[in-house]
Amino acid sequence: MDEKRYLTFALGKGRLANKTMDLFEKIGITCEEIRDKDTRKLIFVNEKMKLKFFLAKGPDVPTYVEYGAADIGIVGKDTILEEGRNIYEVLDLGYGKCRMCICGPESARELLQHHEQIRVATKYPNIAKDYFYNKKHQTVEIIKLNGSIELAPIVGLSEVICDIVETGTTLKENGLMVLEEVCPLSARVVVNQVSMKMENERITKLIRDLKTVI
Ligand code: PRP
């Protein structure tokens, strides 16, 4: 009798999820249903392998993993840093590569050098706070936005932004530039702390297998 319990994966919706399923397929883990772009289903099961997958908003992935609703999560390093959950980060998958940066017009460069009190617009207030307060020791006003962050310095809401830069196209097309780099980012595997102990064999095998294909 097979008494294996389901191992549950929380995947951030969107680009990351597709790349993750490509990677999983390479190590023999498949889930046809999740590939169906038109489906409104939220949870997918691979009965044979005793695996479950669900799609969640990126920032919610660490939450599901911390509470054990998912054993394993695949999520961007930006989200891990911003959410600050009690989870283990076990593997850098090497895709979804980009950088967290402080950006703005060239004229804002000196405001960063002379430690002036400036406004920083961002979707990542915790990352921005950590960078300015703990690393740069600069007092700033953080303004939380939910998207299109590049707008903020253009319309005068803030002097700079703390945001993700991938190709740099959005910055370039809006007359902005990278002024300082906060940290590099990419997709990571995170694991629930209890699952890591209770399902250690299955999880370490999965990590070992993933390492052979990344
Ligand atoms: C992200 C990020 C930048 C853009 C960077 O935004 O916030 O705006 O991508 O990419 P690039 O350097 O290749 O131009 P996203 O598309 O996720 O949407 P958002 O503005 O709603 O955050």
Describe the structure.
- The chain has 214 residues and is α/β, with parallel strands linked by helices.
- The chain contains nine helices and eleven strands.
- The chain has helices at residues 15-26, 61-66, 77-83, 109-113, 125-135, 151-155, 169-173, 193-198, 200-213, and strands at 7-12, 43-46, 51-56, 72-76, 88-92, 98-104, 118-122, 140-144, 160-165, 177-185, 187-191.
- It has a six-stranded mixed beta sheet with strand order 2-3-1-4-11-5.
- Helix 5 links the parallel strand 7 (118-122) and strand 8 (140-144).
- The two termini are 34 Å apart.
- The site of 1-O-pyrophosphono-5-O-phosphono-alpha-D-ribofuranose has 13 residues, from strand 9 and helix 7.
Tally the helices: what do you get? Answer: 9
- Mean pLDDT equals 95
Ligand identities = 1-O-pyrophosphono-5-O-phosphono-alpha-D-ribofuranose
Low-confidence stretches: none
Q: Percent helix among the residues?
A: 25-40%
* Residue share in β-strands: 25-35%
Largest sheet: 6 strands, mixed
Q: Determine the structural class based on helices, strands and strand pairing.
A: alpha/beta
Strand order of the largest sheet: 2-3-1-4-11-5
Order of helices and strands: EHEEHEHEEHEHEHEHEEHH
Q: What is the CA-based Rg, rounded?
A: 20 Å
Number of strands: 11
Q: What spatial form do the alpha-carbon principal axes imply? A: elongated
Intertermini distance = 34 Å
Q: What's a quick, concise take on this entry?
A:
This protein is of the alpha/beta class and 214 residues long. It is built from nine helices and eleven strands. It has helices at 15-26, 61-66, 77-83, 109-113, 125-135, 151-155, 169-173, 193-198, 200-213, and strands spanning 7-12, 43-46, 51-56, 72-76, 88-92, 98-104, 118-122, 140-144, 160-165, 177-185, 187-191.
